[in-house]
Design brief:
By secondary structure, the protein is of the alpha+beta class. It has helices at about 10-30, 35-45, 50-60, 85, 110-120, 165-185, 245-250, 255-280, 280-290; strands spanning about 65-70, 70-75, 100-105, 125-130, 150-155, 190, 195-200, 200-215, 215-230, 295-300, 305-315, 320-325, 330, 335-340. The chain is globular. The structure holds biotin (BTN).
C-alpha cells in the first residue's frame, strides 16, 4: 500500500510503543499467570532497567500490573477507554493504527476520516470516537451505540485498486472483523452478505465502506466499523433487542474495548495485505467459509422488486449469486438479505 509507515531509524517513540506491545502481548498470553522478568527481558532483548521503563509506561497508560519479587509480572486490568494511549500498546500492526485520532464525541467517524484523508492522512490512520451523534449504517440507516459500550472507528485506506473493485474491500473487512470476533470469544460469529457480522442471527458488528474516486482511481476509502462490545440486552433500543447482540452477551465476559479495536486492526491488516498480494480469491474463499448466507433461502429487499430464492455462491467480484424461485441465476450487488432457513 502507498504511504508506508515503516518506522524511521531512531524513531524512539515508535520503538517504545512496539516494546510496550511486546510486553503486553506476553502478559496477555499468560492471562492470570505471572511472567518472569527474565522471560520478558529475553523477549525484548533489553536489560532489566529497560523492562522497568516499559512496565512503568504501561502503568501510566492505565494497565494495572502486579509485580511479585520471585514470580515476575501479572496483568490485572486492561483500561477500557479508547484513546491512542490505550490502543497502541496492544497493536502488533505495521501500518494500521500507527496514528490514532481519538475523540470523546463525533457526529460520525467516517466523516472525520474523510476530512482527514482529504487533508492528507496516510493509509492506516484511524479515527475513533467514544460516542457518535450521527453514526451512519449501510443503506442510509443510522447506527446507534451507547457511549462507552461499543467500538466505533474508521480506518483511512489508500488502496491501489480501480473503483470497480472497491466492493472487495468491504468483504475483506467482513472477513477480518469476523475472525477478530471469533478470536475474542464469539465463536459462532458468521458473515451475512455482504458484511454484517452475526451470532445466532443477531448483529454483533457492521462495516460501512465509503469511497472517494477520481475517474478510474480511488483517492481514498474509509472503512467504518461498529462493534457492539459491552452492551447488555437492556442497553439496546427496544426495536433492536430481537436482532442485536454484543461481545458481552455472546461470551459472558467483559472485554476491554482497546483489545477489540486492536484485534480488528490486526486481522484487517493481515487480510488487506493478502488481498493486495494475492487478489480477491483467498478473501472469497474465507468469506464463503464464514458465511451464514450461502445455502440459505433468502429474500432480497431494498432494490426494486423483492427477490426470493436460494443464495448459492459469492461471485468473483463480491456479488451474491441467488437462484430465483423460477430457476434464474441472479447477481445481487446491493440490497438487504433476509435469511429464512437452511436448505
Ligand atoms: C451497517 O449498517 O451494518 C454498518 C454500520 C457501520 C457503523 C460504523 S460505526 C463507525 C463508522 N462511523 C459511522 O458513521 N458508521 C461506521
Amino acid at each position: 500500500m502507498p504511504g508506508s509507515l515503516a518506522p524511521a531509524a531512531g524513531d524512539r517513540h515508535w520503538t517504545d510503543v512496539k516494546q510496550d506491545a511486546i510486553v503486553l502481548g506476553l502478559l496477555l498470553e499468560y492471562k492470570d499467570d505471572f511472567v518472569e522478568g527474565g522471560v520478558l527481558c529475553d523477549k525484548l532483548d533489553v536489560p532489566r532497567a529497560e523492562l522497568l521503563k516499559r512496565i512503568d509506561s504501561l502503568r501510566a497508560r492505565g494497565y494495572v500490573i502486579q509485580a511479585s519479587g520471585g514470580r515476575g509480572y501479572r496483568l490485572v486490568e486492561v483500561p477500557d477507554s479508547i484513546g491512542e494511549r490505550e490502543i497502541q500498546p496492544l497493536l502488533a500492526t505495521g501500518e494500521l493504527g500507527r496514528k490514532i485520532h481519538s475523540y470523546p464525541e463525533l457526529e460520525s467517524t467516517n466523516d472525520e476520516a474523510h476530512r482527514l484523508a482529504e487533508a492528507g492522512a496516510l493509509h492506516g490512520e484511524v479515527v475513533i470516537a467514544d460516542v457518535q451523534t450521527k453514526g451512519r449504517g449501510r443503506r442510509g440507516r443510522t447506527w446507534v451505540a451507547p457511549k462507552g459500550k461499543a467500538v466505533t472507528f474508521t480506518v483511512v485506506l489508500r488502496p491501489s485498486l480501480p473503483p470497480a473493485r472497491a466492493p472487495e474491500i468491504t468483504l475483506v473487512a467482513a472477513v477480518a472483523v469476523c475472525e477478530a470476533a471469533r478470536e475474542l470469544g464469539a465463536a459462532s460469529a458468521r458473515i451475512k452478505w455482504p458484511n454484517d457480522i452475526e451470532c445466532r442471527n443477531r448483529k454483533l458488528a457492521g462495516v460501512l465502506t465509503e469511497l472517494r474516486a477520481e475517474g478510474d482511481r480511488v483517492r481514498h476509502a474509509v472503512l467504518g466499523i461498529g462493534f457492539n462490545v459491552s452492551m447488555e440486552m437492556r442497553d439496546f433500543p427496544q426495536e433492536l433487542r430481537a436482532t442485536a447482540t454484543s461481545l458481552l452477551v455472546e461470551t459472558g465476559e467483559k472485554t476491554p474495548r482497546p483489545l477489540v479495536c486492536a484485534g480488528v486492526l490486526e486481522h484487517l491488516e493481515e487480510w488487506l495485505s493478502l488481498h493486495e498480494t494475492e487478489g480477491f480469491a483467498p478473501v472469497r474463499e474465507r468469506w464463503r467459509e464464514l458465511s451464514t448466507t450461502l445455502g440459505h433461502s433468502v429474500r432480497i429487499t431494498g432494490e426494486g422488486e423483492p427477490l426470493e430464492g436460494t443464495a448459492v455462491d459469492l461471485a468473483d467480484d463480491g456479488a451474491l449469486l441467488v437462484r430465483s424461485e423460477e430457476g434464474r441465476l441472479v447477481r445481487v450487488v446491493a440490497g438487504d438479505v433476509e435469511q429464512c432457513r437452511v436448505l
